[in-house]
Amino acid sequence: MPALCLTGIAKSFGATRALRGVALEIAPGEVHAVIGENGAGKSTLMKILSGAHTADAGTMELGGQPYAPTDPHDARLKGVAMIYQELNLALHLSAQENILLGAESARAGWIDRRASRARARAALAQLGHESLDLDRPAGSFSIATQQIIEIARALLTNPRVLIMDEPTSSLTQADTERLFAAIGRLRAQGVSIIYISHFLEECRRIADRFTVLKDGETVGTGEMKAASLDHIVTLMTGREVKDLYPRSAHALGGVVVEARAVASVPRLKRAVLQVRAGEIFGLAGLIGAGRTDLLRAMFALDALEAGEVVIVGAANRRATPRRRWAQGVGFLSENRKEEGLMLSQSIADNLTLTKPEAFGRFGWISARRQRAAADRWIAELRIKCREAAQTIGQLSGGNQQKVAIARLLEHPARIFLLDEPTRGIDVGSKAQIYELIGRLAAGGKAVVIVSSYLPELLGLCDTIGVMCRGELTAIRPRAEWTEAEIMRAATGSAANQSDE
């Protein structure tokens, strides 16, 4: 008997048909990858499963019994828990309070603190993080550790079906390995896991079977080991992606941005780099190594403790983000939800945010000119939306990311600082963004990319620098790097070997 069976699931939002008769079947103890481009319907389907949405049509069965949760709490009580890609933590509360929120152990109407703490510690132990400080506020941890707290909260309910939406998007390699080990233990216990990830290699490794969604419909399913990645990509996109990392011909010019012994609190100790016009410069390293800190310091978001940043020959220790925009520097944050976008505002407002004076006169903004600019980029980047006036918070994560990148292009920037630009982006959209980055370099723009996905850096970049413990330890042409060598440099192994 299947652990979970969905038949004919349909859902519409006004005139938009998000799901069109989706079918899905998962066996007990199975890891099932649900794959599809952004906007394919994955998130809507998972929200129906987790009780956040109600299906317009179709049936669901859990363990052979009808399943129709009224809300997420009801879904959890019935045995279905979901870990969302966008973290949902109360950042001012402690790690323990977040893990136990709504599920505290009680005795005679009073919270049993000792039992609650033991349960929180046991949930973390399943992920290899039993030593995590339970009393620290969740907001004081890194994004990766916050993800661990979120996963531990889901495990606390002992779910029959656990939905993981991009669970490794913010994890280090070590944390990813711990997560995979925890998935293995849950699988052995008979827990069924729905695994959503844009890292197809990751799905290939962890999943038993897969289902591909496209435009709200089920277009393919099968055994993961029997399917090639090319076949899955073709099902996802409706076309072959022959060259995921296109190499556009581009010449390197003079130095346009330079960091001179830059340091900032708390992680960045000393960074020296030069980036030339037309160059794609990749920054590798473990999470917390200082990659994001360097980009934020270059964009003047974080104050410099030492050193200076030079933009086209001009140094200014008292620079501000506004001045950086004026100098033609654009910054894409890794945290689009809190720093990159105004989720309650329209696509047009987000896209034109950094140069409102170009869309009006005498303090008034021309909505018509805003819409025209937004429509141009919606078509250029194939952003899936109803219209430019649509609230950006209603878009999928990948389409939100495209709008954030379009803002840099509309500004227009000549130096692009991109922090994890393809995180949460599907394969088809990644190929578009890679092609776009190549066009920027061919047009003489300088691009600095932070990425935790090493094939991306090796496929795209002209030069790669590796950060380790707050220092930029090695900078070499792309051809001189391999994934193994990058990891050795990122963990300090290369330095240790050279010392020996």
Question: What this model shows, in words?
Answer:
The chain starts with a strand and ends with a helix. The protein has 18 helices and 24 strands. The longest helix has 16 residues, at 173-188. The strands form six sheets. Strands 6-9-10-3-11-12 form a six-stranded mixed sheet, with helices on both faces. It is 34% helix and 26% strand. The radius of gyration is 23 Å and the shape is globular. It has 500 residues and is of the alpha/beta class. It folds into two domains: 4-237, Rossmann fold, CATH 3.40.50.300; 256-499, P-loop containing nucleotide triphosphate hydrolases (Rossmann fold).
Protein traits:
about 35% helix; 2 domains; globular; Rossmann fold; disordered C terminus; 24 strands; six-stranded mixed β-sheet; alpha/beta
